[in-house]
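Title: Prediction job returns without error message
Component: structure pipeline
Severity: low
Priority: P3
Assignee: unassigned

Description:
Job completed but the reporter wants confirmation the result is attached to the right record. Sequence as submitted:
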Amino acid sequence: IIFDDRGTRSVGKQGASVLVTVDGSTYGTYSLAQNQRVEIIIDGVTTNILEIQDGKADMVEADCPDKLCVHQKAISQNNETIICLPNKVVVQVTGGEESEFDSVAK
């Protein structure tokens, strides 16, 4: 089950795009259908690099000390996220079809 601040969230199917936010503000929305590298620039410095390849988004570089966001798996399913806490960057897959399931548990 995937949890958020509102309780459980359904796991979706393949998403259409990723929404990137920095410190709670929208930085941009990028299609998962187009291969691209997105430099996330904060205060004139590139802090993170997001790579979209073959329908998946992956944080490939970050200037934070722990680089936990870089070690997270690539995302492509609706509502999946990559989070870089030190840089306040959140990448969330959006625009996918709703799943036929309410939630999934392992």
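Comment from assignee: result matches the submitted record. The chain has one helix and nine strands.
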